[in-house]
Task: inverse folding
């Protein structure tokens, strides 16, 4: 079938084989229906253009170092790709959009994991269609997160692991994902002993976690040299350590059940605005005051009173927040505070007055 005018689509696959293949399948189907196909792809794991002479290919630099590209830590890789591809992808797509000699683009089709592409498509006034390459059943579960949260299934409590999720048969609670987010902002630093204590307590908590360790934030090491050999591997994919994370987006994710924070003011507000209860570990300055308000006035978090070097305190706090009755009350309060924050933000800054006034 010949190509029809106004039917050019741009596709952007995630550079992992299980994501590239379905995107190319879709491209073939669209081509057979008369669409002209342009593929933007990263240098990393690039498809072979000679296998698809009927498509146009544009390669963008992904900026991954050799070590980054060969990591086994998938979560870090996906975060890095979302950060490092943003600029070259925007540049490449903007050029295509403004090229008057080419047929106009009908829409962008991007992999769901390339979440930064929504903002790019919006800025270029292009419709964006998302290709999800996972099964429909996992999509249903992710889409059901708001209900699962509202009905108290999440965060998952140990005592309920074998319970059926009535709304999603035959799933059991233990089949659902649930996560602790750990980050101490852009300034706070840790001693080696504190760093190791955090690592062991996270491991012992038995909860999935995403931990941001800023390079240079542990005294005496550049990044993760102090992590015991095999630490993450032994957790079987339950724990991920990254150098940076898009914090607001992470906190907005419904899988995040708690934020272990240094209570920098931005982090505190972001946690409240996303309704995420906090484990407060202030380091200095206003962080101590913020933490005390969060734990004792607003009561939307628990504070580590004895410092992290007290063995088991972190583990107990995580448990309290994620699994015990007190944690349930805290989660309920932070959800209400989130609603209040959203309402107050609509009224030109009354938020600050209402929560701390
Ligand atoms: N931040 C981020 N990703 C990271 C670490 C930090 O986006 O991996 C952002 C976080 O969302 C917050 C800011 O950096 O907006 C940190 O500010 P905060 O006042 O909480 O702490 P500070 O860095 O001033 O101690």
Result:
């Amino acid at each position: 079938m010949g190509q029809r005018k106004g039917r050019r689509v741009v596709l952007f696959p995630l550079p992992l084989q299980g994501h590239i293949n379905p995107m190319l399948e879709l491209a073939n189907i669209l081509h057979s229906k008369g669409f002209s196909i342009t593929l933007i792809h990263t240098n990393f794991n690039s498809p072979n253009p000679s296998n698809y002479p009927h498509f146009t290919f544009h390669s963008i630099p992904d900026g991954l170092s050799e070590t980054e590209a060969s990591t086994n830590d998938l979560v870090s890789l996906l975060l890095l790709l979302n950060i490092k591809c943003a600029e070259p992808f925007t540049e490449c797509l903007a050029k295509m959009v403004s090229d008057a000699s080419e047929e106009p683009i009908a829409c962008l089709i991007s992999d769901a994991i390339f979440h930064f592409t929504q903002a790019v498509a919006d800025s270029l006034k292009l419709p964006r269609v998302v290709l999800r390459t996972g099964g429909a059943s996992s999509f249903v579960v992710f889409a059901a997160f708001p209900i699962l949260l509202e009905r108290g299934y999440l965060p998952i409590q140990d005592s309920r692991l074998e319970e059926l999720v009535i709304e999603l048969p035959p799933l059991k609670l233990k089949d659902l994902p649930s996560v602790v987010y750990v980050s101490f902002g852009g300034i706070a630093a840790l001693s080696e002993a504190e760093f190791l204590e955090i690592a062991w307590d996270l491991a012992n908590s038995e909860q999935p976690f995403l931990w941001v360790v800023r390079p240079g934030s542990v005294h005496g090491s550049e990044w993760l040299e102090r992590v015991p050999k095999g630490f993450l591997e032994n957790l079987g994919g339950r724990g991920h350590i990254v150098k940076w994370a898009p914090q607001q987006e992470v906190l907005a994710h419904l899988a995040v059940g708690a934020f272990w924070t240094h209570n920098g003011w931005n982090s505190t507000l972001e946690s409240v605005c996303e309704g995420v209860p906090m484990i407060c570990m202030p380091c200095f300055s206003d962080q101590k005051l913020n933490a005390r308000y969060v734990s004792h006035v607003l009561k939307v978090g628990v504070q580590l009173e004895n410092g992290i070097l007290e063995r088991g305190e972190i583990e107990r706090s995580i448990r309290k927040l994620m699994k015990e009755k007190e944690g349930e009350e805290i989660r309920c309060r932070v959800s209400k505070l989130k609603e209040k924050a959203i309402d107050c933000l609509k009224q030109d800054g009354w938020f600050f007055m209402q929560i701390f006034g």
Q: What stands out?
A: Residues 183, 185-188, 212, 244-248, 264-267, 270 surround uridine-5'-diphosphate (CB under 6 Å). The mean pLDDT is 85.
